């Protein structure tokens, strides 16, 4: 079997399912476990730090680990960096068969920091019986020095090992998510998968086809060249973390207005709204959930103010803003849940004779949209309220990136088209 530590909502597991394999996921968060259950993924709800290793001995082919990143992430206090020497000590001790976790944990500024050492406890016990055959681990970039320590231990045990930073956008993920990766194998030379995409498209050469351009948010979400982007508008809304504040079936999208002929599509990803004052009024009504306001908007043939949609990663002053024809920045939520928003900006091709168009209010990204930008299917069965769903999405490994990392160990050729996005 394949053992998946800190399995989350199923980023690795979904990739394995697409590749025709499966894993057993160990996960503590109840909402991630419920999401996995809805997705039909085999899960043990348990604390990885407490679960014994002996049940897996003699039956584990591969080990996957994505320890919780909150202690290390730029979205948090990053106390993992302060605790890093203690984590390195824990890894060294566990690799030698000494369990000093309790003592070291009490000295940590953030007790979650030591979770990054847990995979070594499993690896040491499994190595005693010549397992696993391969290992793949993922974390935020600041954990790379720790992965290098793991790699040195694994090499001493007979593994080939590689560590480095990979950008998910180089593998078809519509997000420039950089992650520290460890790949190790007893049976093949460990090396990163060949990138399939680049920031700029590359022409075909004598050495084969060039890489495609990074996948944009518009491509992933299905807001293509002939179908103007239509961020979701909710009937009501509240801060992240609470239950949905609107009744079932009341969610609307700006596409409703387009279908009634009051919102004009453009082929260059810029949304057009007839009438300056009507545009601002319609957008404000839409953010209150009054989509009927679009239907009553008068259509003007003389003035067509236009704006383009972009994604703002959070509400901080230096937040990254990316246009729809680019990949998203790294999606993380946590205490910033629901603050990842679609914002509208005037199009660059505004006629000089027209005044600057009224700009709609920001629209919060939905869990469905965020999941797609992580390369989960559009219908992935997220469990929990909005905040719980966003937390799962932000912490998950993108399945498409996971697929690229896992396919060589399974002897399978990955087909990116199998990872469907917008439906």
TrEMBL record:
Biological process annotations from GO: DNA restriction-modification system; methylation; negative regulation of gene expression via chromosomal CpG island methylation
Keywords assigned: Methyltransferase, Restriction system, S-adenosyl-L-methionine, Transferase
EC number assigned by the record: 2.1.1.37
SUPFAM superfamilies according to UniProt: S-adenosyl-L-methionine-dependent methyltransferases
InterPro entries membership: C5-Methyltransferase, C5_MeTfrase, SAM-dependent_MTases_sf
Segments of skewed composition (Low complexity): 270-284, 292-302
Pfam families reported in the protein's UniProt record: DNA_methylase (PF00145)
Enzyme class: transferase
Family named by the database record: Belongs to the class I-like SAM-binding methyltransferase superfamily. C5-methyltransferase family.
Protein's name in the database: DNA (cytosine-5-)-methyltransferase
């Amino acid at each position: 079997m394949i053992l998946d530590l800190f399995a989350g909502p199923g980023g690795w597991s979904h990739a394995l399912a697409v590749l025709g394999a499966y894993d057993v996921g160990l996960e503590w968060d109840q909402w991630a476990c419920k999401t996995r259950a809805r997705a039909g993924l085999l899960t043990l709800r348990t604390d990885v730090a407490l679960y014994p290793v002996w049940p897996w001995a003699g039956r584990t082919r591969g080990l996957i680990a994505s320890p919780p990143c909150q202690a290390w992430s730029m979205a948090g206090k990053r106390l993992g960096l302060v605790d890093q020497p203690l984590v390195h000590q824990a890894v060294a001790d566990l690799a030698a068969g000494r369990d000093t976790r309790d003592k070291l944990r009490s000295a940590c500024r953030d007790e979650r920091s030591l979770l990054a050492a847990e995979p070594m406890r499993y690896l040491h016990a499994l190595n005693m019986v010549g397992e696993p055959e391969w290992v793949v681990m993922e974390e935020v970039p600041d954990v790379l020095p720790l992965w290098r320590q793991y790699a040195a231990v694994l090499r001493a045990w007979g593994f080939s090992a590689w560590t480095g930073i990979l950008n998910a956008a180089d593998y078809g993920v519509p997000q420039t998510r950089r992650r520290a990766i460890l790949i190790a194998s007893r049976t093949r030379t460990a090396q990163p998968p060949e990138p399939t995409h680049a920031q700029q498209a590359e022409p075909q050469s004598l050495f084969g086809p060039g890489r495609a351009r990074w996948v944009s948010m518009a491509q992933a979400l299905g807001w293509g060249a002939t179908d103007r982007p239509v961020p979701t508008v909710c009937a009501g809304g509240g801060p992240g973390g609470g239950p949905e504040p609107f009744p079932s079936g009341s969610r609307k999208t700006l596409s409703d207005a387009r279908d009634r002929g009051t919102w004009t599509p453009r082929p260059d990803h810029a949304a057009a709204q007839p009438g300056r004052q009507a545009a601002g009024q319609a957008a404000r009504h839409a953010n209150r959930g009054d989509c009927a306001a679009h239907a009553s908007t008068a259509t003007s043939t003389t003035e067509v103010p236009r704006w383009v949609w972009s994604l703002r990663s959070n509400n901080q002053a230096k937040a990254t803003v990316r246009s729809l024809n680019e990949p998203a920045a790294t999606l993380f939520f946590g205490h910033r849940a629901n603050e990842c928003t679609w914002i509208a900006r005037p199009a660059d091709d505004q006629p000089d004779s027209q005044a600057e168009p009224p700009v709609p209010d920001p629209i919060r990204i939905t869990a469905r949209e965020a999941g797609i930008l992580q390369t989960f299917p559009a219908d992935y069965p997220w469990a929990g309220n909005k905040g719980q769903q966003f937390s799962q999405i932000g912490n998950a490994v993108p399945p498409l990136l996971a697929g690229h990392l896992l396919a060589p160990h399974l002897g399978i050729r990955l087909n990116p088209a199998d990872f469907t996005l917008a439906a």
